[in-house]
Amino acid sequence: MTDLPSEFALIARHFRPLAGPGALDLADDAAVFTPPPGREMVVSADAMVAGVHFLPDDPPGFIGRKLLRTNLSDLAAMGAEPFGYLMTVSAPGNTPDAWFADFAAGLASDQVEFGLTLLGGDTTSTPGPISLSLTILGSVEPGHAIRRSGARDGDGIWVTGTIGDGALGLLAATGRLDDPSGYLAGRYRLPQPRLGLALHGVAHAAMDVSDGLVQDLGHLCRAAHLDATLEAAAVPLSQAARAADNLKLCLTGGDDYELLMAVPAAREQALNDAARAARMRVTRIGWFHAGAPAVTVPSVTVLGRDGAAMAFEAGGWSHFP
Amino acid sequence: MTDLPSEFALIARHFRPLAGPGALDLADDAAVFTPPPGREMVVSADAMVAGVHFLPDDPPGFIGRKLLRTNLSDLAAMGAEPFGYLMTVSAPGNTPDAWFADFAAGLASDQVEFGLTLLGGDTTSTPGPISLSLTILGSVEPGHAIRRSGARDGDGIWVTGTIGDGALGLLAATGRLDDPSGYLAGRYRLPQPRLGLALHGVAHAAMDVSDGLVQDLGHLCRAAHLDATLEAAAVPLSQAARAADNLKLCLTGGDDYELLMAVPAAREQALNDAARAARMRVTRIGWFHAGAPAVTVPSVTVLGRDGAAMAFEAGGWSHFP
Questions:
Q1: ipTM score of the complex?
Q2: How far apart are CA B130 and CA B96, in angstroms?
Q3: Residue B128 and residue A127: Cβ atoms within 8 Å?
Q4: What pLDDT score was predicted for residue B297?
Q5: With contacts defined as CB-CB under 8 Å, which chain B residues touch A52?
Q6: Any idea what the CATH number is for the domain that residue A236 is in?
Q7: What are the CA-CA distances from residue A204 to residues A14, A143, A212, B61, B155 (Å)?
Q8: Closest Cα to residue A157, out of A293, A303, A277?
Q9: Phi, psi of B105 (to 5 degrees)
Q10: Which of A146, A195, A256, B102 makes an SS bond possible with A209, Cβ 3.0 to 4.6 Å?
Q11: B87 contacts in A (CB within 8 Å)?
Q12: What does the pLDDT read at residue B1?
């Protein structure tokens, strides 16, 4: 019994520098922290698997940052502030040390940008692809969390940023779409969590768009027992997405990590003010309305540029058949 | 846009019944809860991969319970009480629905036994083996968390339960060891987290034994800058482990999830009282002592039944070479 096994040396080398107060240097059985006084905790977890959620040859720094950012996006959708995170990494036993170094460097950079630290985790081997899981902890003023379920008849449907870049970016990153500037691939690899948009008292409901705009809008409808009409021509597209000319993919592809919100007309000015303060673009793309009585499955109608309803084979992504 | 994709139906069918207060029916972006007032939070995360941490054909209910229990064991080692957990499941797309049903049923049973509920998570597909990650949240009175680092010169080394059953159980479960009663395989598949042992004011340090007794004792030594002597003959073995007659494996094999503690002589009676109240067995197996000056790598000496020091090729398990 002399040296530490290399697993612990690996953790000490790459992950300990990410550890914050309460993490006990990642050398104990658990982390211990005092919750932010007078606030509610907001927690969420997401998994990412190589070949499913990211490309195996993506730069490891981008993989770590995407993992963190997709979780930060869940906090943003609740109107919460980041506090810390725990992460588990299952990687093949022959994963090069440089992979871990680059992965951790990406996380270190985002920790500074978004103001949170690593609290704990686990590193194991796997005979399969790299499998990552991250649990994020945040906080919010009591009662201020924005739910998915609060949309009301007549509320406008709003989104931050632009829609479709992530799905097009996957095509670009895999050589199936021309992307001369690299903008789309960049949007796929590095989503921008919309933290800091002051939604309390402004939005009746919110969620982040991860599985495709049309499918995710269905979630807001289902939670509120409402129907929705979405105007495709109003959906904000980046210049690169307009050039790609694949509207259906933009509306259903997912990986956007923009916020989708229900905002009443009387709060539109407040939303615009909040967006300006947060330096974000917000766009109204449709409206919620009461559905037919006795119909329990909500209906999302997408009006195309010609004003006719568009048909979709599938609304978005599902991991299971 | 009508029905939910099957991924969400799967979550609703199997995991929503596990969701507790604050989980928002697993239908929102995150869970929201009020932290236990006046207490510190204790958080830990562990990953488990099929073929590494459990056998692919283990009963799914046992897999779920082992995942939860290994995390509960981390709370036990800190002297904390369970509050809730988040879990991510990455499984092949063709995983039968019955697998998820049995997996969730095991968790449901343990949630009742240990008093906690599911707060959130994620379910994704993977082209590789089933990969699980669980983050546990617990709480403790401020300042009462038991750390790994507090052992003092002269403290006794104590363990709960019996050592070695988990490692022998893996041999038994894979047909490499006779286990007529099934006791050893049961101990491998279903560890018993030692929650409820009142360690505050009793133990100077504690951790759970997951990577092998000798290696994990090295962690306590390293954290306290002490050496240790372990008396192999004093290490408590189950009847089945004694019959298997493989002491070295018992001391280094891991998967025990018993508590390893540093307890001063003056608190031995208090420990015995606490163990009686918690209906646990505790055994003194050695002592901590000051190391040679200027030697920074701690030394764990294991005295065999003949009083001579035993030699080990490896102290315990490492995931990376």
A1: 0.92
A2: 12
A3: yes
A4: 67
A5: 90, 124-127
A6: 3.90.650.10
A7: 42, 13, 21, 40, 59
A8: A303
A9: -65, -40
A10: A256
A11: 45
A12: 32
**pLDDT below 70 — which residues of chain B?**
1-5, 292-297, 313-321
Number of domains in chain B: 2
Instruction: Give B96-131 as a DSSP string.
Output: -HHHHHHHHHHHHHHHHHHT-EEEEEEEEE-SSS-E
Query: Are residue B188 and residue B78 in the same domain, yes or no?
Result: no
Query: CA-nearest residue of chain A to B84?
Result: A43
Same domain, A162 and A230: yes
Position B315 in a domain: no
Q: How far is A263 from chain B (nearest CA, A)?
A: 18
Residues A213 and A246 in one domain: yes
Domain identity same for A176 and A115: no
Please tell me whether residues A288 and A200 are part of one structural domain. yes
Domain boundary residue, one of B140, B167, B185: B140
Distance CA A122, CA A89 (A): 6
Closest chain B residue by Cα to residue A2: B297
Which of A140, A171, A195 terminates a domain? The answer is A140
B46·A122 Cβ contact <8 A: yes
> Is A133 within 8 Å of B312 when comparing Cβ atoms?
no
Query: Cβ of A47 and B75 within 8 Å?
Result: no
Per-residue pLDDT in tens (0 to 9) along chain A, 321 residues: 334 567 788 888 999 999 988 888 888 889 999 999 999 999 999 999 999 988 888 999 999 999 999 999 999 999 999 999 999 999 999 999 999 999 999 999 999 999 999 999 999 999 999 999 999 999 999 999 999 999 999 999 999 999 999 999 999 999 999 999 999 999 999 999 999 999 999 999 999 999 999 999 999 999 999 999 999 999 999 999 999 999 999 999 999 999 999 999 999 999 999 999 999 999 999 999 997 665 556 788 999 988 899 888 655 556 665
Residue A149 lies in a domain: no
Residues in B touching A124 (Cβ below 8 Å): 47-49, 52-53, 319
Query: Cβ of A124 and B78 within 8 Å?
Result: no
B209 with B298, same domain: the answer is yes
Nearest chain A residue to B148 by CA distance is A28
pLDDT tens-digit series, residues A44-101: 999 999 999 888 889 999 999 999 999 999 999 999 999 999 999 999 999 999 999 9
The CATH number of the domain holding residue A39 is 3.30.1330.10
Q: Is A108 inside a domain boundary?
A: yes
Residue A44 structural domain: 6-140
Closest Cα in chain A, distance from residue B14 (Å): 14
Size of interface A-B (CB pairs under 8 A): 274
Residues with Cβ within 8 Å of A218's Cβ and at least 6 positions away in sequence, in order, are A298, A300, A315, B1
CB A43 to CB B86 under 8 A? yes
Contacts of A4 in chain B (CB under 8 A): 222
| Residue B94, both tokens | 């063709």
In a domain, B215, yes or no: yes
| B286 and B196 inside one domain | yes
Same domain, A106 and A170: no
Those residues whose C-beta lies under 8 Å from the C-beta of residue B201, and which sit 6 or more positions away, are: B267, B270
